[in-house]
Amino acid sequence: MTDIAQAPAAPAARPSATARLKAVRAKHAALKNTHEEVTNNLSPLNKVALFITDRVGTFGFFLIIFAWTVIWLAWNTVLPTSWRFDPAMGFVLYLFLCNVIQILLMPLIMVGQNLQGMHSEARAEHDLEVNIKAEQEIEVILQHLEQQNEILMKMVEKLGVDVHEVLQR
Q1: How far does the chain reach from its first CA to its final CA, in angstroms?
Q2: CA–CA distance, 168 with 56 (Å, rounded to integer)
Q3: I need a labelling partner for 151 at 20 to 30 A (CA). Which of 14, 47, 112, 133 fits?
Q4: Model confidence over 138-147: pLDDT tens digits?
Q5: Of 84 and 89, which is predicted with more confidence?
């Protein structure tokens, strides 16, 4: 039997898997923090729009509006007439204030949602970059495993071992 250490080296035509992996890593830029990048590029007005959008879309804000409505309606219907400030049947001031809030919040929420959508798109693009990089690295690893398998099969053949017989045991 021939000593395995004396066996001829694999042909140098193919670069090693380590070299291919280094090439793949060198080709890709370092990973970035997309959230931080997008957040740092927001203008002060966009930050305000996001802040308001994040707060208005909560259950806490709903409870505040609900409590305000119940208190307003109770104040102007249940309390003595001398304490009321909005006519019981008209509720003109209440309706006016509700409309102003709606008119102001609608476009502001839409701006905030657009900004959140841009943020989501940036995260999706970053995820795609990471997935492409991982796919390329996995391909190099698979090639390396195939190369190792070829070397092992040559070693087994050189030793004169029947692979099918060994696998059936």
Answers
A1: 24
A2: 67
A3: 133
A4: 998 999 999 9
A5: 84
Contacts for 143 with CB less than 8 Å, ≥ 6 apart: 17, 20
Amino acid at 69: T
**Most distant CA pair in the chain: distance in Å?**
112
The SS3 of residue 62 is helix
The pair of structure tokens assigned to 120 is: 């989501």
Residue 119 has, within 13 A of its CA and on its CB side, a CA count of: 18
**C-alpha R_g of the chain:** 34
Determine which of 17-21, 47-51, 92-96, 164-168 has the lowest per-residue pLDDT on average.
Answer: 17-21
Structure tokens at 101: 């809030």
Q: Distance between CA 52 and CA 55 in Å, rounded?
A: 5
